[in-house]
């Protein structure tokens, strides 16, 4: 594979780099605020995850054959647009998502389940505002590193309750899996609270706060990747997560797609 890899090829919305043998970085760059669209997910993020997993598994298999105990090490970072310090992701592109009944069951939910069970550690490098679907994307990762907001304000918020959007089953399932305190679940889901980075860290939504800009957030994320990427080398990181999040994965699978020929055709075309 030749890096960097920009996807989709006809209008890149993400870029995948491989700066170290054990590290992959996906950068979101759909406009300035990296809103999540079906095109970005189906033809950007999903194929990028395929590339990362294929590369890592090849390294892992080679390590098994050569008895190289460190060869299966690896981690993935997802970061917002690197040339700004304002947004990780401003959430779903609602105008395009609402008319698409297949978006959650065939596009976004499979992305979330893929991340929940991904075979190497995943780190969300939250370099700015992180809203709604972007918040869920970050929660689906194993670790979250965020700017502390000292250089520029940065918020985390699930704001659907404020503009009248119903959650898919996947959002509630992931929230229950990643946030144990029911009072905090209520604050996130029903109050639409806008968390400062400091609040989110104190409430356990974040693992690290970083003073500085995107480059500093990425540097801390790389430290986390270096530390925990070692745990991927036995090959069981993803297998343990499948059991850890089994109930969550099963609940997400209940988000059934609409079944008629027109909707089925639309879902098929989005994948092709």
How would you portray this structure in words?
The protein is α/β, with parallel strands linked by helices. The protein has a single domain, classed as 2-enoyl-CoA Hydratase, Chain A, domain 1, CATH 3.90.226. The protein is 46% helix and 17% strand. The strands form two sheets. The chain has a seven-stranded mixed β-sheet, with helices on both faces. A four-stranded mixed β-sheet has the order 5-7-9-10. Helix 6 (169-178) runs antiparallel to helix 11 (246-252). It is globular and about 55 Å long. The mean pLDDT is 94. This is Enoyl-CoA delta isomerase 3. InterPro entries: ClpP/crotonase-like_dom_sf, Enoyl-CoA_hyd/isom_CS, Enoyl-CoA_hydra/iso.
* Number of distinct beta strands: 11
Distance between the termini: 21 Å
**Order of strands across the widest beta sheet?**
1-2-3-4-6-8-11
CATH-assigned fold name: 2-enoyl-CoA Hydratase, Chain A, domain 1
CATH class: Alpha Beta
């Amino acid at each position: 594979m030749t890096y960097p890899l920009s996807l989709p090829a006809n209008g890149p919305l993400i870029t995948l780099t491989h700066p170290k043998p054990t590290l992959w970085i996906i950068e979101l760059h759909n406009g300035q605020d990296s809103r999540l669209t079906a095109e970005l997910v189906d033809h950007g993020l999903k194929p990028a995850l395929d590339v990362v997993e294929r590369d890592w598994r090849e390294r892992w298999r080679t390590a098994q054959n050569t008895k190289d105990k460190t060869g299966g090490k690896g981690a993935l970072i997802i970061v917002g647009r690197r040339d700004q310090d304002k947004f990780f992701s401003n959430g779903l592109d609602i105008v395009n998502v609402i008319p698409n009944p297949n978006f959650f069951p065939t596009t976004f939910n499979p992305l979330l389940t893929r991340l929940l069970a991904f075979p190497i550690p995943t780190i969300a490098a939250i370099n700015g505002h992180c809203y709604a679907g972007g918040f869920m994307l970050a929660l689906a990762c194993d670790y979250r590193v965020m700017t502390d907001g000292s250089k520029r304000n940065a918020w985390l918020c699930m704001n659907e309750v404020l503009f009248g959007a119903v959650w898919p089953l996947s959002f509630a399932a992931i929230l229950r899996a990643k946030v144990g305190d029911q009072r905090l679940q209520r604050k996130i889901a029903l109050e639409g609270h806008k968390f400062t980075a400091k609040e989110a860290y104190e409430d356990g939504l974040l693992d690290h706060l970083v003073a500085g800009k995107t480059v500093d957030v990425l540097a801390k994320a790389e430290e986390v990747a270096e530390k925990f990427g070692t745990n991927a080398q036995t090959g069981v990181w993803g297998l343990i997560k499948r059991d850890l999040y089994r109930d969550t994965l099963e609940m997400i699978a209940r988000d059934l797609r609409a079944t008629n020929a027109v909707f089925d055709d639309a879902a098929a075309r989005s994948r092709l």
